[in-house]
Amino acid sequence: MLFPDYRPRRLRQSESLRRMIRETTLAADDLILPLFVIEGKGVKNPIPSMPGHYQLSIDNLIDVAKHACGLGIPAVMLFGIPDRKDSLATRAYAKDGIVQKATKELKETLDKLIVITDVCLCQYTDHGHCGVLQGQTVDNDATLDLLAKTALSHARAGADMVAPSDMMDGRVAEIRETLDENGFSNTAIMSYAAKYCSSYYGPFRSAAETAAKFGDRKTYQMDPANALEAIREVTLDIEEGADIIIVKPALAYLDIIYRIREEILLPIAAYNVSGEFAMIKAADKMGWLDGHKVMMETLTAIKRAGADMILTYFALEAAETLRKICSE
Ligand code: PBG
Ligand code: ZN
Asked: Which ligand has the shortest distance to the CA of 131?
């Protein structure tokens, strides 16, 4: 059917029609709010490149999490900023570590909230790399045990899901085995399976105080030029026992989300990372675009590409907007 018989504009004439025809919808259910937790009381350190985000002590973290729950956001992802760092990242798997304490308190206060914990060593190592060092290189196999210990300590604190973001080979299998052996067969693994070595992580690294002291993460995070490798990484993680797959970053990697959606049956989470957030906030502040509208368009596009859920620093703002739309 061709013009003038077929007129695509017929179905765009009113908001009601557009709503009826809409292929992708965003809901608060799809959103996961990343939060930074730090030792202390009453602490709320602003993160300059991430307006509206803070390093929060547990008391303030609980308040933000309550607000998120009230908006219908089902889950938070916790990143810890420890009181001290060392070469073996001991504060990553300490029983009284910051993430362990925060998880316990969150689950006690808000039992319906899903607590996902980021599992990595980079916030906890004095050199800032995601694993332990052998000379100047990150030792894969020596790191696995520490990652598994970290994941187990999070599970013991009550985490519903652990999310390894280190990109060591074999970590999902190691974590799954350790969790199962210790009676945590119901703790899920949300694996950062396709995590690229991206400069979009810049703001996060100052927020979580995790910049590497030397070198870069190119020997463990993926080359942005590769797509087939993402499928290989995802396939491995599924075989090792991942329950949910993360693609990260999101916006410059929508093709990866799409391709993985075609290949696998597991839920996919896309990580709309700190740099993607910062760019929109900065342009909005300059008056160069409408940050709010660009946010909604971006999140919708990430879902359209095939993501089932989105980790995003926009979670609160987006959920507030979605609530208004519903009540209109
Ligand atoms: C740590 C980690 C990073 C992010 C999540 N977990 C940074 C990195 O790998 O350097 C990035 C999140 C963001 O930029 O929002 N392994
Ligand atoms: Zn890391």
From this structure: 2
